[in-house]
Amino acid sequence: MGYLIEAVYFLTAVLFVMGLKRMSHPTTARSGIVWAGYGMLLATVVSFMHPQVQANAGNYFLMIVAITIGGTISWYGAKKVAMTAMPQMIAIYNGMGGGAAAAIAAVELLKNYSDKTLEPGSQILLMAVTGALIGAISFSGSVVAFGKLQELKFFKDDAKFRFKGQQRINAAIFFGAVLLGSSIAISHSSNGMLVTLFYLLALGFGAMMALPIGGADMPVVISMFNAFTGLAVALEGYVLGNSAMIIAGIIVGSSGTLLTLMMAKAMNRSVSNVLFSNWATLGSGTVQVVTGSLKPMESQDAAIQMAYATKIIVIPGYGMAVAQAQHKIWEMSKLLIERGTEVKFAIHPVAGRMPGHMNVLLAEAGVPYDLIFDMDEINEEFRTADVALVIGANDVVNPAARNDKSSPIYGMPILNVDHAKNVQVIKRGKGVGFAGIENSLFFAENTRMVYGDAQKVATSLIQGIKDLS
User: What is the tally of helices (H) and strands (E) in the chain?
Assistant: First the structure.
């Protein structure tokens, strides 16, 4: 039976790796998710045959009930969640994974205290404590990330969670958890009180670490917590002797780490800068004053300008996601293509609230993959574009990232929208972006502001283009 279980776990690992590989391209991403899902199903079913599980066969009913409840909630949530709320759903589900790893560790620590089966300071005890620490941090941090992205009232104001000496206090909490965890691992003193205190410190540190981080940095933080969850699961897999958990955890941990580093690079910031620096205090001095004035444009005039353009580059942002305007934008684009206009879509690595957010929206609307380009592929083409149409994007098109050394986003690679001959910006109002800074693009001489809900504006643009046919 042991060989059969390990063989199935090996097949599970293959499905995970193949699924992850297929997720790297939009045309195969959906099948990659399905493959990985089958791998997880196989791992779950065969785990019922594991000796440790069979030794507690009386818990089968509770296990099935738990799987049924959890599966139903997650299935319903995934079916009903709006695309704009996908990042916070990922955050909370990722937190559940970290919490599960921490709970497994708690069971193992308390069990060892009662039966003393492990030597003090054994490798398994150290692994259990480390996994518990990382999993608990991931859980509480992910809950805070969910609250910030969901814009719950308590989490809205980042500034109220910042105070003098904050990093020292956080460090004290962290090292307190580490010392207590070390004590539990090195001795047999893992009684309920010590374990509880250890978990409270770990949970407190995760929350304290995430609370002051600005909302604009949350995608990076979520990715980091995702990596933490993977590492915690891998460590607890070692504790349980479950190779499927080890493999899955390593895959999640390594991919989450790589994604975190890539996102930080796309913002031209280090991960430590994201975690330990307040966004509002970044920059080298007083932020450059934006000169000029906002120049509104009616949607009918915008439609005329686009209808007679030779080349148009569309830049989607979170505003498009909020308005669910992707279908109307693609309908408009098809009308322009039928008129002989070259239309392309430009995607910034951190556009939206998670990596690939805009790609998913455009794919949902049916935009062909060969019309969607990453920043590095299309940035030089803005100089040849007659119109750059910005839909709800802000910080990723702000020229201050190139020319204002005092700006918080200085050095961040951006889409060169300001190099286009004409820029149209669809925006709901005159507010600043997620980073909380003014966008000099909006005041440029070649920029016109088309105010309104992106879906309603797109509908007006479609009608305007049709009227010219």
Answer: 18, 6
CA distance 172 to 166: 10
pLDDT score at 133: 96
- pLDDT score recorded for residue 274: 76
pLDDT of 284 > 50? The answer is no
Stated pTM of the model: 0.81
Do 169 and 110 contact (CB within 8 A), yes or no? no
Secondary structure of 41-102 in the HEC alphabet?
Answer: HHHHHHHCCCHHHHCCHHHHHHHHHHHHHHHHHHHHHHHHCCHHHHHHHHHHHHHHHHHHHH
**Residue 95 CA to its chain's centroid (Å):** 12
Sheet holding 422-427, edge to edge: 372-374, 342-347, 311-316, 387-391, 422-427, 447-451
DSSP code of residue 442? G
Parallel/antiparallel/unpaired status of strands 387-391 and 372-374: unpaired
Which amino acid makes up residue 368? P
d(CA 218, CA 394): 16
| 425, β-bridge pairs | 390, 449
Percent of the chain whose pLDDT exceeds 70:
88
Residue type, 284: S
Q: pLDDT grade, residue 279 (50/70/90)?
A: very low
Lowest mean pLDDT among 56-65, 66-75, 176-185: 56-65
Catalytic residues: 395
Closest by CA to 461, choosing from 274, 224, 300, 281, is: 300
Nearest Cα to 360, choosing from 396, 324, 397?
A: 324
Residue closest to 451 by CA, chosen among 348, 353, 319:
319
**DSSP H/E element including 226:** helix 218-240
How do residues 315-346 score in pLDDT, each as one tens digit?
999 889 888 899 999 999 999 999 999 999 99
Q: Is 162 helix (H, G, I), strand (E, B) or coil?
A: coil
**Looking at residue 287, what is its pLDDT?**
47
Q: How confident is the model at residue 434 (pLDDT cuts 50, 70, 90)?
A: low
Residues 6+ apart with CB under 8 A from 93: 74
